[in-house]
Design brief:
Elements (H helix, E strand, L loop, with lengths): L1 H16 L12 E7 L4 E10 L2 E10 L2 H14 L4 H16 L24 H18 L6 E2 L6
Parallel strand pairs: 1-4
Antiparallel strand pairs: 1-2, 2-3
Helix pairs in contact: 1-2, 2-4, 3-4
Length: 154
């Protein structure tokens, strides 16, 4: 378990300090906002679609290390995938971070995203890790609403 914790810390710190795809996209197909009032995380997600494929995805914003790292890893994971593949990955990631800590989870096919399995032990951090994912889901579904981690917040 200590190897996974070390990998978790290494991956989170790396993607927090040097987030991938941290930029705006000129003329994106979709844009979505995300907000986690508990931690103060805010992000703007940009998605460029080529038919049903995510040609480019990027984000801007500020937040805690887990939130920023999750957004960075999410953009790497969904770029080049179809919308259906991205939605399936969302479901697997969401299951990973929201499953009870004492239940085993499947991490196959998640790559570096598997390091987020540890956040399920900390319910407040689940919201940090999942904000970018909910924002991505709103963007690809073109919902036009802010993705939030708490009900009734701005």
């Amino acid at each position: 378990m200590s190897d996974l914790r070390e990998l978790y810390q290494e991956v989170i710190l790396d993607h927090n300090k040097r987030p991938r795809n941290f930029r705006a996209i000129d003329a994106p197909s979709r844009v979505a906002k995300g907000h986690n009032p508990l931690c103060g995380d805010r992000l703007m997600l940009y998605v460029s679609l080529d038919g049903d494929r995510i040609a480019d995805v990027a984000f801007e914003g500020s937040g805690c290390a887990i939130s920023k790292a999750s957004a960075s890893l999410m953009t790497e994971a969904v770029k080049g995938k179809t919308v259906a593949e991205a939605e399936a990955l969302f479901a697997r990631f969401h299951n990973l971070v929201t499953s009870p800590p004492d239940e085993p989870v499947t991490t196959s096919g998640l790559g570096k995203l598997a390091v987020f399995a540890g956040v399920r032990e900390y319910p407040a951090r689940v919201k940090c890790a999942s904000l970018a994912w909910h924002t991505m889901k709103n963007a690809i579904e073109d919902r036009g609403e802010v993705a939030k981690t708490e009900e009734g917040t701005d």
